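User: We ran a pulldown and think these components assemble together. Before we commit to crystallization trials, I'd like a predicted model of the whole complex to look at. Sequences follow.
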Amino acid sequence: MASQNLLLLPGDGIGPEIMQEVKKVIAWFNDKGGMSFETDDGLVGGSAYDAHGQSISEEDMAKAMAADAVIFGAVGGPKWDDVPYEVRPEAGLLRLRKDMQLFANLRPAICYPALADASSLKKDVIEGLDILIVRELTGGVYFGEPKEIIDLGNGQKRGIDTQVYDTYEIERISGVAFDLARTRGNKVTSMEKRNVMKSGVLWNEVVTQTHKNGYQDVQLEHMLADAGGMQLVRWPKQFDVIVTDNLFGDMLSDVAAMLTGSLGMLPSASLGAPDGVTGKRKALYEPVHGSAPDIAGTGAANPIAMIASFGMALRYSFEEIEAANKLDKAIANALDKGLRTKDIASEGQATVSTSEMGDAIVAEL
Amino acid sequence: MASQNLLLLPGDGIGPEIMQEVKKVIAWFNDKGGMSFETDDGLVGGSAYDAHGQSISEEDMAKAMAADAVIFGAVGGPKWDDVPYEVRPEAGLLRLRKDMQLFANLRPAICYPALADASSLKKDVIEGLDILIVRELTGGVYFGEPKEIIDLGNGQKRGIDTQVYDTYEIERISGVAFDLARTRGNKVTSMEKRNVMKSGVLWNEVVTQTHKNGYQDVQLEHMLADAGGMQLVRWPKQFDVIVTDNLFGDMLSDVAAMLTGSLGMLPSASLGAPDGVTGKRKALYEPVHGSAPDIAGTGAANPIAMIASFGMALRYSFEEIEAANKLDKAIANALDKGLRTKDIASEGQATVSTSEMGDAIVAEL
Ligand SMILES: CC(C)[C@H](C(=O)O)[C@@H](O)C(=O)O
Ligand SMILES: CC(C)[C@H](C(=O)O)[C@@H](O)C(=O)O
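Assistant: Here's a predicted model for the assembly, 730 residues in total across the polymer chains.
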């Protein structure tokens, strides 16, 4: 394997602690796995703001654009609640997504067998759950203009956000969903609110057309996003791949993640389009969970989602499928041996620290 | 009690069947409860479209504007999937909400003790659940302009929706939430996406200010809407009153309703501002569930949400608190006696039809 550049952006809260564990895993693959990763570190979010008043520096943005993959921790925390909107911690993440054109966000919601009891849902409802949410990540209400607060006088202000989707954006994200469905359960459920939103009408139309044009072998189903939220709670196993827009994807993937009882375990991948010449995609990998400032520094953070995010990098950026499977297996083994961080322990069960969990996974490798 | 005008709009699917049961309840209150309701019927949704090509006629709109309360069934179904956007079934409901200025949508998510087992969630997570979602209903992305699909040429279209909130809209809906919290658990959780949306920034700011100005005795908490969806699944009992915008309210209230396992049981109220002279509010009452076209005509529909919606009318439009309590008690009694429609029966449990359930509730009165 030619040398690959990883930019590590640990971010805030528990970000640096869990990134520490990924470094151990990367070191193992370099030493014993025949790989050759070169890593560089950068700042993002509140920690970048503290260092230089921006949620990500131009220098780190340039590194991200040049990296073979970005490994991202988490951003945000009460410390930065009152910083100006433009430089709030989340702005760094949103800029990475937008400038790197990471339009396809893959969020698996998997229920790890060892953890089926940790869910608030009944065991039979979530045991064996394996769904993939494909969220559009560079469009919609996150980025549409106008996006502003206008002073109307008389003590009145107006807050405006704009949801915008163009045909090509819907086409490319549904193409990703159909392609992925073929490697899994061969079914796609598209979710929008076409009964209320014009962007939903267009979404529905374009997904239907994309299906007709090249994916008729895949089963396609349409569902209103509110009904989709309900169905996720009622019987999530009815889904295979869900494709939806940026904002619905944000909500629905969080609900789906929480269903599994395995929130601290779930990775995500954000991918750009393949480059026309090299075929390589820009990519960023991050855990689904947030920066959990309340437990930062206590050694209670679960590093598995972060490590599994690196696993997704092996799979999607480096096509090291065997290595990715090996890493997933190492995680499952550590769980099977009863190792639990606090978030996934049942009452009375012994727990290990962030770094003990990281070490155990490396040992399993 | 002076005579009160009710406009009944059964709508589509199971709407007419469940409205039939409400009529029995209204008749009982007229005959034996010392009340004096006059009812009129109208068409809305697909049935209105079939009759006169509109999702609600001008005549029925005028009746709704003049009524003391509108009792609404449900709209929509596959039959009307391809009618023009402007006259789709939902347009009738949206016009009622907008023209009657029903800005405050109250959606209780209650777990009926007799039904705690029907939920996909663990019993201890939802037993005794009693939360109230206060959803803004006349603003946001539902009604903001521009809302359109533009043809960009070259096979490209652009779908646009606009999320707009003004200070006064956020002020009045949060006032409703704080007022209601005082009659309950005295806690309000406000949900938005201020980390991504400018309307969310304004929402957060105005709710905080409204709290400061007159509701400091009520506990106020802010939560990002995606985290809110997660927390609803994880531990819903942490909430008392949730206040949120139109679209987040749509999603979150559906998730909350499904948590309870009692979807066929949950009513809602949509209220306007009190009239400056008479103090009366325009109001519409409807079940949280939809038109369920798949079971229409089979006698399987559960009429309880519809009947409980009339109960909310007694409470909020007619201040007949005792009668409202009596009706709620009659519903609980029928359930305690083991009466179940199909949707709420456990495996192997005997079921009753829509009209048998209605009759049983009247008998309990
Ligand atoms: C941190 C925030 C901007 C982000 C989002 O809203 O997309 C997060 O919730 C996510 O889902 O990745
Ligand atoms: C029918 C539809 C327009 C409506 C909405 O989106 O508001 C429904 O889902 C609801 O929640 O009342």
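The longest strand of chain B covers residues 156-166. That may be worth checking against your pulldown data before setting up trials.

User: Thanks, that helps.
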